[in-house]
Amino acid sequence: MLLVFIVIPIDGNSAGPPSYLPDGTHPRIWLTSEVVAGLKAKKAAAKPEWTALQNRLDVFFINYDTSHQTAFDSNYAMYSWPGGSGYVGSGFYEAIVSAGLAYHTLKGPNYGTVSATADDIKAAQYAAWAFSLMDRLINKYSAGEEKDGVEFIRLSDNKSSQMVTFNADEALAAHANGFVYTTNGNQAYKSGYAARALAMIVPIFYDWFYNDPLMTTELKTTLYKMMYRHIDWYNAVRSEYNNGVLINGVRYHEDNFGKDANGNSVPGACTGINNCNVPKPESYKAYGYGNPGGVGRIGSNFYEPYVGLVMMNAVAAYGDAPQVDADRYLDYAKSLWTQHKAVLSNPTGFKGGDSLEGLGYNSDWHELLYGVLALNTATGLDTWTGFDFPKEFVKNYIHNTDPTLTYQMYRSSIHTPQNSAYWLHPVADSLNTFSHILRNHYQSSDESKQLQHFLNTAKLSPRAHYWENFLFRNNAAATKDFASEPLSYRSEGTGIVTTRSTWNLLSTDAVTAQVVLGGVFNVDHQAQNQGALLINRGQDQLLSRLMGTNKLGDETSYGQNSIIFADGGADGYGLITRQSRDSGMTSGTPTSATPVTPLIDRFVESGTFMYVSADVSNVFKGVNNYKLASLFRRSVLHLRPGVFVVYDVTRSDPVNSSALTNKNKKAWITHFEADPVIDQGGRNISATVGASKIFIKGLYPAGGTYTTTNQTASANPSFASAFYRVKYNPPVTQEFDQFLHVIEATGKSQETMTKTVSIDVSTNNMRGAYIADDKNLANNWVALFTADPNGALVNSEVKYLIPAEAGYSDPYGRAPKKIIVDLLPSTDYTLIGPKGKLDFPGDTSSRGKNASQEYTLKPGAFPNEGRVYPTSSQGVIFIDNLTWTGK
């Protein structure tokens, strides 16, 4: 037989004969013969995952009255089946997938024959129920007079009982014919948000029940046309499959809506976002597309489920649809995978395995991987070699969980935080998917074993589905603890760094922290948190962040431990890193699909300390697109176990923010889950939370004012019973500002902070802190940073004096540990130590507590004057405790 392949473009992609074809038998989405055999083995062994799934089906589905119409009512409860559709149809999704898994687990070789077993009969019950439900869904979620299933993808986030359209004429015709339509212009209409749930039912149902006698040729045709329509609708492509809505013999297309200045209808006049009258055909694409170039918002939970859906639709329908179309859509699916693999592996993308939408949303990476896994199981295409993102995801997730594996450190945007059990704890449905993929495709990796250990020991969110536990979990899989893990982790793409004092999971005094130093992405739930710092001790959140009582409360800049520019100005303030929540897509919205070049340019992990530094000023834009900052370099130094030195070099933008009220006024913001004690004159803050205490010492500038605000009424009680914001404003309002703070996380029994003072630098080119632990002299530290207003690296002689105050000097002549940053990279510097009595180890007469220690750091190698130290590639010198003998 001669096969002729015709090349037809779709959305800029060319099609042809794919190298791997999903032309085998069904099922081909996830359920390989080995996987089905494993499910049958779980049933035979009466594994609890099987028992739980079957109980859910028996109680909620088989005994459910299928005429119960409230299943189609508007109901936003998470996974609320029965009695509600669930969030964008998630209840229906759970129902179909659960029934399909039970069907394949029970069905044997005698299914549908006179020799059918009890299991076969039960499988047939599940199948009949699933077909009945799908028939009702098609009838309900089609628009107009055809069974087009467009509402499976058009169903919006918050209009689950209404069909929303741009086309006013379509809405009028629909109302006249008894349909419920609205033209409220809500952006969720064109979000394609239901790709994650209701639309994803279609390929799974089609594939898993393909060979059942109830699957007629007519139904197959209806379903594959629906699947292709969902793709074309999302892409705003008119096609044989996506050909408007037929009402009373007239077809209405969404791109035919709009009025010109004279009130005349103008095709293509609506942007698809805010109903403006400027023709922009590309904006009829779903919300997951972020710019006119048609590049998706990679990393957005609006987009990733759609990409997974495309892959599942393409492989499910292959073999029944016309060959030319089947090849075209499969090629499109593969092109999306190629694009994603590149971005998820790129340091300017999402290399590191992170999500800017927080660990609750996780950008719905697992929904993307549903499709990638389907592409693999259906075609045999190797989608895993050279793709490290699943392994990096595991590392990132584990590092971003608190020391007791109970809470997620980084949540970025909680979004609907009132469901605290769901959002606070690690979310198992994402993790189950990654566990299955790692276990089967990265078998020898440490990450596969570490994730299984995490699943076995962490306190997981109750969100996990019964079907996911049954299909993807294997509690008997090999495990490995985290003892060999580094104490910090940097996600290169998003610029989020976590650090901890220990991996001892039994330690209640283990300290973890996180700092956000990333760039601008165009995703929906990225919080305005650039520069933000969080610190935990055990489960006590010492340096916390505002969790609002509504879904917006936690996404504002003032809810973060960062710096506010143009503080209190009437023009708006804060760091706007994505669309404004109040005004929709503003003219100032960044539209790049990937972040700017990674901002972290200095990162060191030594085991003894962690140091990271980045300039994040490029993400500081006000709500009117004013550029607020021309410089904001935040440097964080973690001196283990629990001391942090935070140094900020800032400059208000002198040009772009010139029209702003309070353009030069800056605020250094911190948040506490307890009423803090403020010492204005000494620039000290302390707060006790649970069994822990936090101290903050301001070393530079001197003076200034503190303002404490009780935010308890604005905070969600699910997260904290009390919540306070402390705002520090420096004494002088000026264009350039620098801030030096030392933070200590310790036990609540410690009455005062470890002695901390500013270092006197006579050459005025560096600024530093001296931390003196008189209980453990080996933990005495000196930290020095550039004092240049623009943050320039130091390449001149530095003279500094460790103060001779009581209790500070080591009576044994040992110099404190030193970490000196902001130096030229890979360059020799000479450190010249104290002179005088300290030169003579046998003479202790002048080595008491009043012995000052003056040091000189000199660029170049001068071995006859002192000790020569080359800086690292990051411009850092670290010197451990030394006993000085003149050099």
- Outline the biggest β-sheet: 9 strands, mixed
* Overall 3D form: elongated
Please give the order of strands in the largest beta sheet.
Answer: 30-28-29-25-22-23-24-27-31
**What structural category arises from helix and sheet content?**
alpha+beta
Helix content: 10-25%
Provide structural commentary:
- The protein has 887 residues and is an alpha+beta fold.
- 24% of the residues lie in helices and 19% in strands.
- It is built from 17 helices and 32 strands.
- The strands form seven sheets. It has a nine-stranded mixed β-sheet with strand order 30-28-29-25-22-23-24-27-31, with no helix packed on it. It has an eight-stranded antiparallel β-sheet with strand order 11-12-13-14-21-18-17-16, with no helix packed on it. It has a five-stranded antiparallel β-sheet with strand order 5-6-7-8-9, covered by helices on one side.
- β16 (677-679) and β17 (684-689) form a beta hairpin.
- α1 (33-44) crosses α3 (90-106).
- The longest helix is centred in the N-terminal third of the chain and has 23 residues, at 118-140.
- The N and C termini lie far apart (87 Å).
- The N terminus is likely disordered.
Name the features.
887 residues; alpha+beta; nine-stranded mixed sheet; eight-stranded antiparallel sheet; 32 strands; 24% helix; 19% strand; disordered N terminus
